[in-house]
Design a protein that fits this description.
Elements (H helix, E strand, L loop, with lengths): L7 E4 L1 H5 L9 H13 L4 E3 L7 H11 L6 E7 L2 H6 L7 E7 L2 H6 L5 H17 L3 E7 L6 H13 L4 E5 L7 H14 L3 E5 L7 H11 L3 E4 L13 H12 L10 H12 L16 E2 L2 H9 L17 E2 L7 H10 L6 H18 L5 H9 L10
Parallel strand pairs: 1-2, 1-8, 2-3, 3-4, 4-5, 5-6, 6-7, 7-8, 9-10
Helix pairs in contact: 2-3, 2-11, 6-7, 8-9, 9-10, 13-14
C-alpha cells in the first residue's frame, strides 16, 4: 500500500461547485458556506476565480478575512494577467491550470507541448514571487499522454510548485486506471498529488478513493457533488467512503453536515435527490418488512453507516413493503395499541393507499385507517 492513512480534502464547492450551470453564490453565501466547511474541519478550500472580476475578487477577500483555519486556494489559468489579479487577496495557494492533453493543447490553445512546459517554468516562479504557493493544475490530465504528465510534474517540481492536480476534466476515468496512474506518478515524484474527479460516469467518488489508494495526498470535493455537468466528487461521500471502506481519515466531522447541506441547497437552488447517498431524505429510511424487522432486533443487521455520524437517525416508514411488525411498532409509537389482526387490516389499507397515491401515509391517514373497521381484504401470503 502506498497511501498514508490520512488524506487532505481540498473542497472546491465555492469554485467548481459554483461553476454548475446556473449556480451563483452571493458574497454573503460564500462566506457562510466557507464558515460551515471550516467548522466541519475542512483543511483546504478553493474559494473562487479572481479573473472573473472585481466582485469575485471582493468575495474572495471577504472569505480570506474571516480568519478560518482552512488554507485557501484560488483557481487561475496559467497566464500572467490571471496571476496578476490573484495577488493580495489573502489566499495561501493558487491553482495555476493548464491543459496537458494533446487534444486541448492543440485544439483549444493552438500550442504544443514545449510551450506548455515553458509556461509552467515562467508562471510558477512569478506566483512564488508574490508569496503564494503553487499547485499546477493539469487540465484534461485523464486524456493526456502519461509520459508528458511525468515531464509536466518534473518541470513543476524543478521550478518550485508544491502540488500537481490531476484533473479528470471530462469524467472519463474509472478507478482501476486512476489508481495505476497515481501509483506511477507517486513513484516518480515527491510533489503533493491531488485528484480532481468529475461524475459524468457516476464514478467520481470511486475514482477519488482509488487515487488516494494510488498515492494521492489531496482530493477535491464539493458539497453534494455540485459542479460542471454531472458534478464533482461529493464531499460527504468521499469522507464516508474513505473512512468506511479503507479506514482512511480526513479529519472532517459530518455530524453537523445538515446545516451546510441546507445552506448549499438554498444558495445553489439545487435540491438533493431523495435517494442521494449519505444526505438524501431516503438514505436512512426503511420500509421493507424484512429490513425493518432486522433493524428492530439489532440495528447492525441492516446498518452499514451509523446515521449519527452524519447527524441523522433511521426513519421507518409504512408502505407497500411493510410487515405487520412495523405497523404494530408505528402505532405503538403513536400511543395506539392494536392487535395483530388489526395490523393486517391496516397494512391492507396502507398498501392500496400507497399504490393509488404514490405517497407514504402520514399520521393523520394512519389514524384514519385505524378508525375504519373494514372487512379484511384477501392478503395472499
Amino acid at each position: 500500500m502506498h497511501h498514508s492513512d490520512q488524506v487532505v480534502i481540498d473542497d472546491t464547492t465555492l469554485r467548481d461547485g459554483e461553476q454548475s450551470a446556473g449556480v451563483s453564490f452571493t458574497a454573503e453565501e460564500k462566506m457562510r458556506i466557507a464558515i460551515q466547511l471550516d467548522q466541519l474541519g475542512t483543511p483546504e478550500m478553493e474559494v473562487g476565480i479572481p479573473a472573473m472580476g472585481p466582485e469575485e475578487q471582493e468575495s474572495i477577500r471577504a472569505v480570506a478575512t474571516l480568519g478560518l483555519n482552512a488554507r485557501l486556494l484560488v483557481w487561475s489559468r496559467m497566464r500572467s494577467d490571471d496571476l496578476y489579479l490573484s495577488r493580495s487577496l489573502g489566499v495561501d495557494m493558487i491553482d495555476l491550470s493548464i491543459p496537458v492533453s494533446d487534444q486541448q493543447i492543440s485544439k483549444k490553445l493552438n500550442k504544443d507541448r514545449a510551450w506548455v512546459l515553458q509556461e509552467i517554468a515562467r508562471q510558477v516562479p512569478a506566483a512564488l514571487d508574490m508569496g503564494i504557493e503553487v499547485c499546477v493544475g493539469g487540465e484534461d490530465a485523464s486524456r493526456a499522454d502519461p509520459e508528458f504528465i511525468a515531464r509536466v510534474i518534473d518541470v513543476a517540481q524543478q521550478v518550485g510548485a508544491s502540488r500537481f492536480r490531476y484533473a479528470d476534466t471530462l469524467g472519463v476515468m474509472e478507478p482501476f486506471s486512476i489508481r495505476a496512474c497515481f501509483e506511477v506518478m507517486r513513484r516518480n515524484t515527491d510533489l503533493e498529488l491531488e485528484m480532481h474527479a468529475h461524475n459524468d460516469l457516476g464514478l467520481a467518488t470511486a475514482n477519488t478513493v482509488a487515487a488516494v489508494l494510488g498515492g494521492a495526498t489531496h482530493v477535491n470535493t464539493t458539497v453534494h457533488g455540485l459542479g460542471e455537468r454531472a458534478g464533482n466528487a461529493p464531499l460527504e461521500e468521499v469522507v464516508m467512503a474513505l473512512r468506511h471502506a479503507h479506514g482512511i481519515d480526513s479529519d472532517i466531522d459530518l455530524k453537523n453536515f445538515s446545516i451546510l447541506s441546507q445552506l448549499v441547497q438554498k444558495a445553489s437552488g439545487r435540491p438533493v435527490a431523495w435517494n442521494k447517498s449519505i444526505v438524501g431524505e431516503g438514505a436512512f429510511t426503511h420500509e421493507a418488512g424484512i429490513h425493518v424487522d432486522g433493524l428492530i432486533k439489532d440495528s447492525k443487521n441492516y446498518q452499514s453507516i451509523d446515521p449519527a455520524e452524519v447527524g441523522r437517525t433511521h426513519q421507518i416508514i409504512l408502505g407497500k413493503h411493510s410487515g405487520t411488525h412495523s405497523v404494530l411498532r408505528a402505532y405503538g409509537e403513536m400511543g395506539v395499541v392494536i392487535d395483530r389482526q388489526q395490523a393486517s387490516f391496516i397494512l391492507c389499507q396502507i398498501r392500496s393507499y400507497v399504490t393509488r397515491t404514490k405517497q407514504i401515509p402520514d399520521r393523520l391517514e394512519l389514524m384514519g385507517f385505524y378508525e375504519t373497521t373494514i372487512e379484511p381484504c384477501n392478503l395472499h401470503m
